[in-house]
C-alpha cells in the first residue's frame, strides 16, 4: 500500500484507506 498520488501524469499510487487502489506505480516510486 502506497500513499503517493502526486505523479498522476506518470502513474498512480495505491491509496489504501480511502478505497482507492491503483496498481500503477511511476518509475519514480518503482
TrEMBL record:
Taxonomic placement: Eukaryota, Viridiplantae, Streptophyta, Embryophyta, Tracheophyta
Protein name: Rhodanese domain-containing protein
Family annotation (InterPro entries): Rhodanese-like_dom, Rhodanese-like_dom_sf
Organism: Nymphaea colorata
Signal peptide start and end residues: none
Domain Rhodanese: 1-24
